[in-house]
Amino acid sequence: MRRAVAVVAGLLLAVTACSSGQDAAQNRQGQAGFVSGNGNVSVFAAADREQAPALTGETLDGKTWTLSDQVGKVVVLNVWGSWCPPCRKEAPDLVAASKELGPSVQFIGLNTRDLDKAPARKFVKEFGVPFPSIYDPNGKALLRFRGQISPAAIPTTLVIDKNGKVAGRVVGEVTKQTLLGMVAEAK
After folding, report:
1. Is the confidence at residue 33, as pLDDT, over 80?
2. Fewer CB within 10 Å, N- or C-terminus of the chain?
3. CATH of the domain at 86
4. How far is the CA of 126 from the CAs of 88, 106, 160, in angstroms?
């Protein structure tokens, strides 16, 4: 029993340590279970890569985006929420990496747990995010990545190779330099 209480207390500490003040209030709006990652980077050799699951969804601007349409391109999939402080911190690096890599790499966001599109759209505008994001308020699209992305570890970024296989993953904030290196490895 003491061990279970200690585990629960540790999880609560991890959840609350990621934010404070207004951010904490935003996290409480349907964001139970939020756990910020530690920036752990995994890169997978070509022979060890797993196929990314099928992903199709409506973007924040009402268009349909499908992962299978991207075969032949490296794809960077970033899971984020407007309520997530580490997502706000990494946004400038994602924007810079997407601009530097240009159209040879397809960036796509997976906006999760924003209960309506307004805060997500505000985030995109505030940070000048140039790539689309699939709107996934209930996490159904995110759950397709079970085993590759923890539904509680927001943000997480995947680099998917030209064959649709997961070449790398960052759990937590990603930096521009890390992302550029992972994309180079995936090509």
Report:
1. no
2. N
3. 3.40.30.10
4. 10, 21, 27
